[in-house]
Amino acid sequence: MSNDKRAASAPWIRTRLRTAPGAATALAVLVLVTAFLAAAFPRAVDAYETKGLRHDIATADAGRSTVEIARPQPGLELPREQREAETRSPELTRVGEALLKALPAPLRADASSVAYGVRTTKPSVATEPWLPKPDAVPPKLTYVAQSGLKDHATLASGAWPTASGGVTADSRAVQGAVTEETAAELKVKVGATITLPTAAQEPITVTITGIVAPRDPKGSYWSADPLLRSPSLVPDPSSSFPVNFWTGTVLLAEDTGPVLLSTAAEPVVFWRIPPDPTGLTGPDGSRLTSVIASLESGPGLLEVRRIAGGTAVVGTGLGTVVEANARMRDAISPVIAVAALGIGSVAAVVLLMTGALIAARRRNELALMRSRGGSLRGIGGRLLAETAVTVLPASALGLLLAVLLVGEGRWWPGALAAAGVGLLVCVALPVRTTLQHIRPTLHGAREDMVSARPSRRRTVAELTLLVLAVGAVTALRRRGTSTGGGTDLLVSAAPVLVALIAALVLVRLYPLPLRLATRPMARLRGAIGFLSLARAGRSSAGGALPLLALLLALATAAFGGSVIAGIGDARDDAALASVGADARVSGMGDRVTLPDELVRTVSGLDGVRDAAPVRVEYSVAMPEAAAGDDAGTGTGTDTAADADADAGTAGDEAADAGDAATAALVGVEPASYARLARTHGLPAFPAARLRATGPSAPLPEGTEAGPERILPAVASPAVAARLGKEPRAVRTLSGDFQVQVVGTTAQIAAVSSTDFLIVNAASLEQKAPTTLLLAGAPDPGKLRAAVDANGKKFVVQLRSEERARYVNTPMQAGAERIYLAAVAAGAGYALLAVLLSLLQTAPERKTLLARLRTMGLTTAQGRRLLAFEATPQALLAAGGGLFTGWATIALLSPGVDLVPLALAGVAGSDTGPVALRTDLWSLGLPAAGVVALAAAVAGVQAWWASRRGSITELRAGDSR
């Protein structure tokens, strides 16, 4: 009997797949795409976290990332031979190899750059007369006998230093080398000798036999201690006067470490182990932090001391690098979780809609099977087998594509996600179908939404979801997307819950406008309007599930678009705050002025729309805060009367006035600067208030300004609060005068400082500009060529180049790509939801058109009927999506900070809070696509129905 059952099961599945190959193929494609997206997401997150960790370690300064194990020189109580043996290459190599083997996973060493040897920690004064002595202070040098010199350098001149004859602690002559940079700065030549003092007052003569060039100057071998590569001019901390001296390093032959034991320069034995990040993955970050902590002060340190000696210590900044990476990852993950939950919810609803569509198409077939004695278990089993044959291979193929196309990452999260997609589809279709046939249903029962009344259970469920949504949104507004302990899924699901509540509310409100619109339509002569509204009220295409899918997709697309727009705006604002305009030309020093010829040449270049010469003087001392006086704190757009009226608020800012002890003095041409501020979207600048008239009139050439001159000034709020509304005297390099605040502005283009004072440059004694701000898009090469033609003391900054600095980490770029994919996937699922909802009622519409054509309905009227029928649902979804997206962003924006995505990891960037803003394109385009697709499908369906005969649709006994 079992064989008969197996024989009967196989033909059933084959027959069903052959009967509806198109539906099976469409379902397989949908599952394939969804499984691919579900499996690709965790792999993409793993990929950008892995690349981010490797990037941060690889680009970190070698002095921070290198693990250095050091111990003092062997004790004096030991025999001399033993002390010397511990500083020779064989023993150092043995210990180094043991340390490499003892490194705990996941920390691995870059074996090609490992260095070990003996170095002095206390610089020794070099008294040779030929060495450079700035400020009459001789240089101080350190000495190192380090392994691998020939492997990491090329010989530029001379010969390699050697340790011929065996160097001991009693040796008084050794050979050494210096790098090309050290030789150039310290005037060292091949054959020169340098004296190294010893504790016994018997100096060691170091003969420079060669000058070497580093193969990889930025590699850890040369950058772990930058003095190996480049000397440095440093201030003398022991002098009461500002004097400087040179410091550098002499490279001794590899096996000359014993000679340093006789010096008083405090030699140490060291092993430098640079990390190899190529084998690390994103999840290894937490383990790596624990391993580093163990090496510095834990069980790992005990193992190191067992190998290298009881006095060995481990020093590294790698832990801070990994911790910084973890902080960025923890800040980005909650924001990414919002997109993941949104798209996941949309995909799940669309899959459920697909199951509902298939169930509706097969309702009569399964009802017939049920009426002939088919059990629910048997029907469900057949549907499960039939669905699994199509869905499971599609899920596996989606997982395979994700593994092949998305970067390296853990396989099991993607496998679980793809398996979840397959399981949802396999279970949803049989369950949805069998539940419809638990009880017999009346054939052709009406499903009119206008007359339907929600049950008490549905009301309780909706109220429960409403409470959850309000709680999630409230938590997000109060504490942000990060809770300090990882990602809070409830908080990250707030946009999904908001869209869910909006869908349920709109479904409840949807019958009301239909009722209002049906009554006047019934009084009209034409039947098209009344029929379309009646059909719209009865259609299941406007149900909760299709509307929920649309609102989720549109809200997620709007949220993702707002994230992308917010990131772009933050980077634009930070670049503008740093440069001040589209381009900036300034001197290398604060006192370097721009010649008139340079200003004219640059202003006339192609692509320059406007130019504003500015004189900037930093750190100008401000007078003491005005006691009991009010400041002129009128905004830049206020009138003079308004400025005086607003001046009373300065008393409230007195606490902030003490922070403006110094400020930047900015001299501008009011007209040109106002145009430039307007071009770059900065606050309106009150150029009329800085007119150089009366006491502030321009001085004749060569005339000195008197302290009685009063110049009108626009100040930052803090400076305005400090100065008050009365004239106050200031002393500057541009002249001595008094300033009177006539307005305030929070931001200017010339300086990034928050404390500034703007005056008319024509009223200054020294008018020459130090900075030229440009609006437009000049050619970078021509601009730099024009500036270089006037000397090498001028610097060119471009806003576009500054902005490019902010996209410099794989973690930021990867998270941004995920949000771009979220926007695209949200729009795609929204359109698919519209298509599925219309396909679900397509047979009914075809039958309706066939019947109406027999009554005289024309083709044009049929098209209008279907278009009008689809319009209410499409407008409901589009309008609801617009509102839901806007409301979600407005509600969640106070709790979302985009700084980790936009500006994190860039030194000197503006790291103020970056809030979400509504992006009209992300809101409008998907919503417009929903309406356009609904109209297009209705038009195509009407055209296709008009080409087929009515007999095909109107069969005898058909109750549709």
Give a written overview of the molecule:
The protein is of the alpha+beta class. It is 52% helix and 14% strand. It is built from 33 helices and 21 strands. Strands 1, 2, 3, 4, 5, 6, 7, 8, 9, 10, 11 and 12 form a twelve-stranded mixed β-sheet that branches. A nine-stranded mixed β-sheet has the order 17-18-16-19-15-14-20-13-21. A hairpin with a 2-residue loop joins β17 (728-732) and β18. α9 packs antiparallel against α11 (318-361). The longest helix has 44 residues, at 318-361. The two termini are 40 Å apart. 44% of the residues are buried. Mean pLDDT is 80; it is low at 1-10, 447-451, 629-658 and 956-960.
Structural class: alpha+beta
Question: How many helix segments?
Answer: 33
Mean pLDDT: 80
Estimated share of beta-strand residues = 5-15%
Helix content: 40-55%
Sheet with most strands: 12 strands, mixed
Based on DSSP secondary structure assignment, what is the total number of beta strands? 21
Q: Determine the N-to-C terminus distance.
A: 40 Å
Q: Unreliable segments (pLDDT under 50, ≥5 consecutive)? A: 1-10, 447-451, 629-658, 956-960
Estimate the global geometry from the Cα principal axes: flat
Radius of gyration: 38 Å
Essential attributes:
single chain, 960 residues, alpha+beta, 12-stranded mixed sheet, 9-stranded mixed sheet, disordered C terminus
